[in-house]
């Protein structure tokens, strides 16, 4: 959370082991003197080099290359904000990146460099990119780097994913129709049986990161923030029906909610073909689906009586895999830890499947402490790994 009165920015580092770390740093105003490749050792024990960021002086201050882990103190001397890349001067693979470097401020970029040729690229807002002088290093091994993605690279992947979601919405409409029919005829046992398949069909589609806009609020919202809680007329969708089915409410009291749910999912399905998903959000969605799972499902915040949080987590894992399968062509050449990510996804799936006893899922409250700790650790680790995917798949300006 930002500190009042200060500004925070994202810093991307292409760290060792192929894992991209996304850090949030609070800006600290540094006084820096620029000169002929000034290098000094700071309290962190690493060599520091002061580097200018501006259209006319991009990369100035770095003249003598040295291998190893080091810090660049990047100072924006221009009148507007800028992005900065440190890239391989031949392949243009990025070793480190800063976003939102405000005018007159200095921020640090920590990278590991080795044998090769490097240059800073400065991208001022509303201006063309500028590449600074090339600096060569003759020894050592550099940390991992990744060739930047553009929105053009992601457009066909997003189109394919959007088509997959559209096909899935057909199934959601069909399943919610079965749920509504059971409620309409007053068969609440059949309605409880139909509720979970319908809900999981929706959850597999990954509504994270505002994928479905306002429709998700009508379909899958909780009672959070509602003045009357579960009794509030604005409490609608799957969880409203879940609450009623598992808290002894009559079929008559649920018919309106069931009709509204079918109307909402049908409207979402019918309008999806005209929707235009932002390709830049594809990598974010891979991360956000499971982050939401950890935040809402593993805490039980979305349980209104069915005890199906672990089933939902399993459906969310399917949704994550669906996104990753579209991103795999670009990740193969950019994400060195892809095989490890695949193994951890398999591990999470195996663990969650162990809580499915022939369609009857273990409620969260019945898990023993070691089981909860293991599950939290596995999915928490996946969320961290998927943050790297989100960072790698964030489109970047290159001109």
How does this structure look, described?
- The chain is built from nine helices and 13 strands.
- It has 399 residues and is an alpha+beta fold.
- The chain has two domains: 8-137, Immunoglobulin-like, CATH 2.60.40; 151-392, M75 peptidase, HXXE motif (A middle domain of Talin 1, Up-down Bundle).
- Strands 1, 2, 6, 7, 9, 10 and 11 form a seven-stranded antiparallel sheet that branches. A four-stranded mixed sheet has the order 3-4-5-8, with no helix packed on it.
- A hairpin with a 5-residue loop joins β1 (8-14) and β2.
- The longest helix has 34 residues, at 151-184.
- It is elongated.
Short descriptors:
about 400 residues; alpha+beta; A middle domain of Talin 1; 9 helices; disordered N terminus
CATH level-3 fold name of the largest domain: A middle domain of Talin 1
Strand content: 15-25%
- Summing up helix and strand content along with how strands pair, one would put the structural category as alpha+beta
* CATH class category label of the largest domain: Mainly Alpha
Set down the secondary structure blueprint.
Layout: E1 8-14, E2 20-26, E3 39-41, E4 47-53, E5 68-76, E6 82-88, E7 94-101, E8 106-113, E9 116-124, E10 130-131, E11 135-137, H1 151-184, H2 188-203, H3 214-220, H4 238-245, H5 251-272, H6 282-297, H7 309-331, H8 338-353, E12 356-357, E13 360-361, H9 369-392
Parallel strand pairs: 4-5
Antiparallel strand pairs: 1-2, 1-7, 3-4, 5-8, 6-7, 6-9, 9-10, 9-11, 12-13
Helix pairs in contact: 1-2, 1-5, 1-7, 2-4, 2-7, 4-5, 6-7, 6-9, 7-8, 8-9
């Amino acid at each position: 959370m930002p500190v009042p009165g200060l500004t925070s920015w994202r810093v991307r580092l292409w760290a060792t082991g192929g894992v991209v770390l996304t850090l949030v740093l609070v800006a600290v105003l540094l006084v820096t003197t620029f000169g002929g490749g000034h290098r000094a050792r700071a309290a962190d024990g690493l060599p520091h080099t002061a580097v200018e960021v501006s259209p006319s002086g991009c990369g100035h201050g770095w003249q003598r290359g040295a291998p190893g882990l080091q810090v660049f103190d990047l100072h924006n001397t221009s009148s507007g904000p800028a992005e900065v890349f440190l890239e391989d001067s031949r392949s243009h693979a990025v070793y480190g990146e800063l976003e939102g470097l405000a005018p007159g401020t200095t921020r640090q970029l920590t990278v590991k460099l080795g044998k090769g040729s490097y240059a800073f690229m400065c991208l001022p807002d509303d201006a063309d990119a500028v590449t600074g002088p090339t600096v060569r290093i003759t020894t050592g091994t550099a940390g991992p780097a990744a060739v930047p993605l553009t929105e053009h690279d992601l457009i066909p992947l997003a189109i394919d994913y959007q088509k997959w979601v559209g096909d899935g919405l057909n199934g959601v409409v069909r399943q919610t129709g079965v749920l509504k029919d059971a409620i309409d005829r007053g068969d609440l046992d059949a309605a409880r049986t139909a509720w979970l398949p319908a809900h999981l069909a929706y959850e597999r589609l990954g509504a994270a990161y505002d994928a479905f806009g306002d429709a998700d609020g009508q379909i899958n919202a909780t009672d959070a923030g509602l003045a009357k809680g579960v009794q509030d007329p604005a409490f609608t969708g799957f969880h409203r029906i879940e609450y009623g089915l598992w808290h002894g409410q009559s079929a008559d009291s649920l018919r309106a909610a069931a009709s509204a749910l079918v109307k909402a999912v049908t409207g979402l399905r019918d309008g999806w073909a005209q929707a235009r998903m932002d390709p830049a959000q594809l990598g974010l969605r891979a991360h956000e689906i499971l982050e939401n799972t950890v935040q809402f499902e593993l805490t039980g915040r979305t349980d209104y009586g069915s005890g199906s949080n672990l089933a939902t987590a399993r459906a969310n894992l399917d949704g994550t895999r669906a996104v990753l399968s579209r991103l795999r062509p670009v990740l193969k050449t950019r994400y060195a830890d892809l095989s490890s990510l695949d193994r951890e996804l398999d591990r999470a799936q195996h663990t969650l499947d162990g809580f499915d006893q022939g369609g009857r899922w273990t409620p969260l409250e019945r898990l023993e402490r070691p089981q909860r700790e293991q599950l939290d650790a596995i999915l928490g680790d996946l969320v961290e790994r998927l943050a790297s995917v989100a960072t790698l798949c964030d489109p970047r300006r290159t001109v």
